[in-house]
Amino acid sequence: MTEMTTTNPATMTARRRMGGAALIGAPAFLLAGALIHPREVTDAGDQLKIVAASLNRWYVAHLLYVAATALLVPAVLSLGRRLRAEAPRLELWGTGLAVVGLFCTAALVAAEGFGGWQLAQVSDRAAATQAFDHLTHSAGIVVPFGILGLTLSAGLIVLAVGLHRTATAPAWAAWALGAGSVLLAIGEAAALQPAFLAGIVVLFGALAAVGWADLGLSPAPALGARTTSRFATNG
Fold first, then answer.
1. How many folded domains does the chain comprise?
2. Is residue 23 in some structural domain?
3. Fewer CB in a 10 Å sphere around the end CB: N or C, the chain?
4. Which domain covers residue 99, as residue numbers?
5. 128-139 in b/e burial notation, b at 16+ Cβ within 10 A?
């Protein structure tokens, strides 16, 4: 005999609102971190000089990045929840790729951000520069964390396609989510700060709009609207 369980409506509402808060908070932390982050350059020695001159800004910026990646996990799952009924494969691939990318990104931020913060305070600048160069350019860091971190953008693009196909988010928000993800990937892969910042701004607009609806502060699309209408027609 199979026992069927139902989720309490109050629990569903709480989950939806927590997801909405994450959808707003995650890109907000990401944007704040990007705005206060010191200038980035490719030369390890010059970068350490910049970090040493802005120790507090460098530390706080990466702390905000870590907070953003943590909040993006429930945010991504909240987006996936909207696809569960009509596009389960897109939900699976989108959330899976994005979460893998988030873990890789968090590791990269911890290694480069907090590692660089510590090395900038070492008195032996030559040894610190060599260590920082190895930390930021070695294959052991770049491949598993830098390159695989791009799966975050890939997962968000898959979710954007799903949101557009199922009409479970405003069309403009789905397009903005996809465009912002592409800009974010370009900024990260090519070290183009303007593209990276533009991607974060666009993502903030898209995710915050969806999160605002989930918090109940604006009308939210009915997740099962299409399915319900089909049953009504067939009945």
1. 1
2. yes
3. N
4. 14-219
5. bbebbeebbeee
Residue 227 has a pLDDT of 38
Cα 127 versus chain centre, distance: 34
Q: What HEC string does the chain produce?
A: CCCCCCCCHHHHHHHHHHHHHHHHHHHHHHHHHHHHCCCCCCCHHHHHHHHHHCHHHHHHHHHHHHHHHHHHHHHHHHHHHCCCCCCHHHHHHHHHHHHHHHHHHHHHHHHHHHHHHHHCCCCCHHHHHHHHHHHHHCHHHHHHHHHHHHHHHHHHHHHHHHHHHHCCCCHHHHHHHHHHHHHHHHHHHCCCHHHHHHHHHHHHHHHHHHHHHHCCCCCCCCCCHHHHHHHHHHC
Q: ∠135-138-143 over CA atoms, to 5°?
A: 110
Asked if residue 30 lies in contact with residue 71, where contact means CB atoms within 8 angstroms, the answer is: no
Is residue 160 assigned to a domain? yes
Q: Is residue 90 part of a domain?
A: yes
Neighbouring CB atoms inside 10 A of 15's CB total 16
| Residues in the chain, overall count | 235
Average pLDDT, whole number, for the chain? Answer: 88
What does pTM read for this prediction? 0.85
Q: In the predicted model, is pLDDT for residue 11 greater than 90?
A: no
Question: Does the structure show a pLDDT above 90 at 58?
Answer: yes
**Residue 39 backbone zone (phi > 0: left; psi -120 to 50: alpha; other: beta):** beta
How far is the first Cα of the chain from the last one, in angstroms, to the nearest whole number? 29
Domain assignment of residue 1, yes or no: no
- Which of 73-77, 129-133, 171-175, 218-222 is predicted least confidently? 218-222
